[in-house]
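[job 0412] stage=fold_complex status=start
inputs:
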Amino acid sequence: MDNLSMLEKYADLILKKGINLQPNQNVILKSNTDAMDLNRLIVKRAYELGAFHVYVDIGDDEISRLHLSLAPEEALEKFYTYKIDGFTQMLKEDAALISIACPNIDLFKDISPLRLGKSNKASAIAGKEFGSIISNQDVCWTIASYVTDEWARKVFPDLELSYAKEKLWEKVYEATRVNLKDPIKAWDEQSSSLLNRCAKLNEHNFKYLEYTSSTCNLKIELVENHVWLGGSGKNKNGVEFIPNIPTEEVFTVNDKFGIDGSVKSTKPLNLSGVMVTNFSFDFKDGRIVDFSAETGYEVLKNYLDIDEGARYIGEVALVPFDSPISKTNMIFENTLFDENASCHLAFGRAYPSCIKGGDKMSEDALSEAHVNRSLTHIDFMIGSDDLSIFGIEQDGKKIEVFKKGNWAF
Amino acid sequence: MDNLSMLEKYADLILKKGINLQPNQNVILKSNTDAMDLNRLIVKRAYELGAFHVYVDIGDDEISRLHLSLAPEEALEKFYTYKIDGFTQMLKEDAALISIACPNIDLFKDISPLRLGKSNKASAIAGKEFGSIISNQDVCWTIASYVTDEWARKVFPDLELSYAKEKLWEKVYEATRVNLKDPIKAWDEQSSSLLNRCAKLNEHNFKYLEYTSSTCNLKIELVENHVWLGGSGKNKNGVEFIPNIPTEEVFTVNDKFGIDGSVKSTKPLNLSGVMVTNFSFDFKDGRIVDFSAETGYEVLKNYLDIDEGARYIGEVALVPFDSPISKTNMIFENTLFDENASCHLAFGRAYPSCIKGGDKMSEDALSEAHVNRSLTHIDFMIGSDDLSIFGIEQDGKKIEVFKKGNWAF
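[job 0412] stage=fold_complex status=done
writing structure:
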């Protein structure tokens, strides 16, 4: 099958499972000039599948870079918000959102962390309502990745570019099950399996998780009434969707103030185009009280300083070390893939749907329940082949959850 | 000089003369995926020249075509207007607007004229305030063209594509004076010359223009207190700008109800991607009472039916047959160029700045002065090498204005 047919299957997966497109629905497609063949296929298939109007927002890496490096500093913080406001309005009126991630890992490596920080913070503030609609899962949304030149070069630096891209597409199709005869069916099965896993974890209703490995020594308290989610989500109208393609994780929300110990990252993290490597966090009462990084320290610091909540964890996610993505035996250098090959945490905002009735709770009520309300949300990987996790039930009973990096039950 | 350097000179011309970028000004750049190299150069140079924030809106021809051919009919008329509303707000707060035209002449040739008509009308209505800010010249704006594959193929169908594009860029640089050593200075001279021409025409203060040629027999009444404009315009703050690159025309406003006779087009017209050829109009009391076209009749009809004013003329423009663009001796198949190689008229909206004090007149006052207030504005070419124009002054004195297609004075 040629790449165009595969790309069309990918577009179909994004529309049918990713956002689960409904008849006469509006769709927002946020993408990039790199991905025009996929963008066009998504628009074409969306209309053929019954979309009402597809609003396409095409960004460009080089223009973003020029803006961040050349615009006056004040312009990084002060800008017209017509676009994010327009999208927010559409989401409130039940539009679905597709984001195509076009990795370009070193894009902002020459931008000063101070300027990056200002710009990210201002964007987070302008997009607060938008971000909360997404993290509340009010609407159907999905993120999928596109193979860019930069990504392929990063992953296969020794291969000729066109061959590197071809090979990376193969891996992407494998990890997203697009290479299977019926990807839609395969995703239905994958969703069921993750939902079963969640059901078991929800039965145990753990109070704490205790992580131990060569790089990790953490005790994490889970929020009372927490819910484990994974695979597909449900929007406020009960329509199922898959927020991340691929996804192998189950996740829930920790008590914002209930983490102690220390952890070292097991994969590098790309923050606004800057690689942060070999970083570690020390926690006391949930707060990151100390941190270090081999590279990218300043950018990491700026992210942790976005607001008070950025210094606290908001998501706890479990992924077996032998997940299909792990089994591709490669580092994708792309959080969307690598987070699905490794247990991870996120600093910043929690998903309200990870607490019972959370999507109907006010900001104040969520804060009172110790649910992190930061503006930011950044995943980082902590999984390894020697990771052991025990869950402590409310009555103190200790259950083995992870053994040598994989599910123990 | 390589094409990148020439393209940078072109970007500079667009910024320095086109919109005459002011320090700390916001800029809207409306362009297309075809023109990314030029778009990026404009953004880069804009910031280097002191812009505050450049908002880039990147459209895509294929996505527009998919939308027009596949979206439900209702979606062509009903859509979110966040983008045009946002741009309108920016213009009200003194942003400048750059539009890069990326000709793709046959793009919509397979779209039903009915669907095209609905979409165009709805866009015109949504963009009413935006259009009126532009036509009132409240802000600095400019349109310049980019050489696309489709345009180059249309103009040089017998040449290999890369050579056709190279050759068309040469012609574009020639017609826009970018090939000269100092294009900015050349444009200053060109503006002065057009302004002098306007001053003379304004002195004569003609009541009528009488056109005669083998394809034209028209008597056109000019509005009382009309003003001839050309070259650079001035925005509401008195900042000079050049709305069209290139420009060779001087133009004014006719009395909406004061045209009688008939005229045949001397160049084809591209309407929404459909070629309208060999069309003719019969006028009675200003109204197009009859029309025909060899091809594109339906699309032309839809444009003329957008509103009541679309059946009336709103602009009268004079261009000598031996203008520099004419002298390139080619048909550019692009109104921005071809209108500057030929006398033309436009049906639809007039420029209020073509009447004394017009930019401060209300819609009602403009209508009472017989100034066309349609939502649309479409130029069409009527110049030829045998065109003769006489001007009749208020006291009946007859002055020769054009002789054998060129200025008589």
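[job 0412] summary: The longest strand of chain A covers residues 254-264.
[job 0412] exit 0
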